[in-house]
Amino acid sequence: MKRIFTVIALFALFVQGAAACTNFLVGKKASADGSVFISYSADSFGMSGFLAHFPAGVHPAGTMREVYDWDSGRYLGSIPEAPVTYNVIGNINEHQVAIAETTFGGRSELVDTTGVIDYGSLMYIALQRSKSAREAIKVMTTITQEYGYYSSGESFSIADPNEAWILEMIGKGSEKGTVWVAVRVPDDCISAHANQSRIHKFDMKDKENVMYSKDVIKFARKKGYFSGKDEDFSFAMAYCPPDFGALRWCDARAWTFFNMYADADMNEYLPWVSGDATATPMPLFFKPKQPLTLQNVQAAMRDHFEGTPFDVTTDLGGGIYNMPYRLSPLTFEYEGKEYFNERPVSTYQSAFTFVAQLRSHLPREIGGVLWFGCDDANMIVYTPVYCCLDRVPACYSAENADPVTFSWNSSFWVFNWVSNMIYPKYSLVVDDMKRVQGELEKKFYDGSVALEAAYGPSLKESPKYALAAIKDFSCACAEEALAEWKKFGEYIIVKYNDLVVKPEKNGKFERSSTGLGATVVRPGYPKAYLKRLVEETGDKYLMPVSK
């Protein structure tokens, strides 16, 4: 039990409020290979990214589990431990159950300050106790009912190799327990949520695909949040009525996923995601234009609204080299007026990100993969972490990811080091980054396909040997990504030193005939930026004409 308590305490130390996250979900018939996918970007400034591990265990009667708030580290209380708990690596367990979240907050008066279970602990307790998504929902809703829910409103993505669900939950303030609703994403559909409640009306008669607390409507009536007919009840409107930020900064991230892949005209919902709460809300899910691949989901996690009305890659805020990120906070004042920045899916305050791939047609030990990386999805290499892994690669360990101590042994710090070199000269450098990123991800993906073909069939006959190979592969990919990213950082500091470009030939920097470095290329300002510069400064920098 000591190891579990240590991991929980480390989460509280390093994960300081994952309250600005993004999740995408893909049903098994909406994917190209029968996988169920859920994705997660854990976003919050000050967070440090690492891979958690909770080992499987058998616990004597009377064993208690201490619970610490995931955001603050505050001790909340203890609950009886389950007799048997399952191995959990990151946000996936040995039975291919995966859980992610985004915080929608909702009505502040519904936070139970005396509750014992916070949203972060809730995810990992459920993963340790569940063999299916439905079982995880039961665990999550039961223990919050019994011990109280300490956090604000949450949307959870909960999936197994056969199903993907969205569970939305909020506390009851001075009353212990929660009100909640869970909706299954149809197998042939995709869905998304991003810090705004997404479940509006739901079919209370569909017991197979919808679950909810018995007082979810009654409690809203009692609190004055709803007064209409039961069939008109909207969970989102009752418990998290949207404002401009909830739509423009949150639902817009769900919209961009649908805009990329949904078989629908998403222009219909532009008024809603532009901030008009009186417009038509987006449905919870859509059918895709074509089945999605792992790479499609990873690409969506790297999105900056490119090619949409919310595109952040072309305006002045991106600086000289069109950085697709904006300085925080999201709003700023100038001459008495308040302005805002867009909030894309890909954001530099990400501590870690993953795409969970869950497959019923493979043995469970190799069917579940957490494609994982530390830092912003756009700037990392996703490496495969198989659900049978029972140790953390050193580069993903919490010990190497202290938030105020740089470490060359930490993926979190090395990937952030490279990212922060790229940000100010983004368009100048990003193609080099994408090339190396693509090469590594292809290598790891191809390697995973070969690994599954080689060791999947032998898991029954020679499980010890096969499992060892699978685990070694996961760790090797993580460590190789770290090593290659160090090399890439060294490469770009040489190539782009002092904002010039050193010429290359056949993958090597060129030299002069005397052995010195070849003459550098000075790219200067991009033409679009020069136009703005001249328009703003007029003739201030105009060269005088020689007489």
Give an overview of the whole structure:
The protein is an alpha+beta fold. 31% of the residues lie in helices and 20% in strands. The protein has 13 helices and 23 strands. A hairpin with a 2-residue loop joins strand 8 (88-89) and strand 9. Helix 11 packs antiparallel against helix 12. Mean pLDDT is 94; it is low at 1-18.
Structural class: alpha+beta
What is the terminal separation in angstroms? 85 Å
How are the strands ordered across the major sheet?
16-14-1-2-19-20-21
Percent helix, as a range, is 25-40%
Radius of gyration: 25 Å
Strand percentage: 15-25%
Largest sheet: 7 strands, antiparallel
Low-confidence stretches: 1-18
Kindly report the average pLDDT value: 94
Shape: globular
Number of β-strand runs: 23
Number of distinct helices: 13
Short synopsis of the structure:
By secondary structure, the chain is of the alpha+beta class. The protein is built from 13 helices and 23 strands. The protein has a 7-stranded antiparallel sheet, sandwiched between helices. Strands 10-11-12-13-15 form a 5-stranded antiparallel sheet, with helices on one face.
Summarize the helices and strands and which ones pair or pack.
Elements: H1 2-14, E1 23-26, E2 36-43, E3 53-54, E4 57-58, E5 64-68, E6 75-80, E7 84-85, E8 88-89, E9 92-93, E10 98-105, H2 119-129, H3 133-147, E11 153-159, E12 164-172, E13 175-185, E14 190-193, E15 210-212, H4 216-223, H5 235-239, H6 244-261, H7 270-273, E16 285-286, H8 294-301, E17 331-334, E18 337-340, E19 350-358, H9 364-367, E20 369-374, E21 383-386, H10 411-422, H11 426-455, H12 463-495, E22 504-505, E23 508-509, H13 527-537
Antiparallel strand pairs: 1-2, 1-14, 2-19, 3-8, 4-7, 5-6, 8-9, 10-11, 11-12, 12-13, 13-15, 14-16, 17-18, 19-20, 20-21, 22-23
